[in-house]
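Revision sheet: structure tokens.
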Amino acid sequence: MGDLIARRLDELTADAHAAFFAWIEGMSAGQDREDGPAFAAWLREHGAIPGDATWVFYDAASGALLGTASLIRRDRTLLAPVGGWVLGGVNVVAAARGQGVGAAIMRWIDGELRRRAAAQGRPVRVLLQADNPVAVHLYAGFGYRPVEGISGVYAANYAPEPHAAPG
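Predicted:
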């Protein structure tokens, strides 16, 4: 897996936006664990909510579309903690699965959440919902742990990165 380029969905060119939604709308529950049209509607809904953000990830070398992830305030019945986020819509294109793309997206999200924690000057709590064993294993590697009493919900805390000591 090479380097990723992240672009906000709301900043894509018209052609890139159309290609992204063609991929999303073509998803199927059987192959992708997503209902494509419902996921596309979910993305459009969150695109209109101030503060919610979706990123589209591309291979830096080839420009190929690799996946997506969103940081939002509410996902269905899951509400973000005060000052925190819900991580949702994490998906990798079928042709790129099993090649470390999901982990690369999570590393990028990890960095974004640490930047947000630093900007707020305090830890940020993040929730997510997952029932896919492969995804649950991936998220566990980034510190997500089950939330007691809520089936399929996981949480992680992101602390601001300590500043390097002056040299």
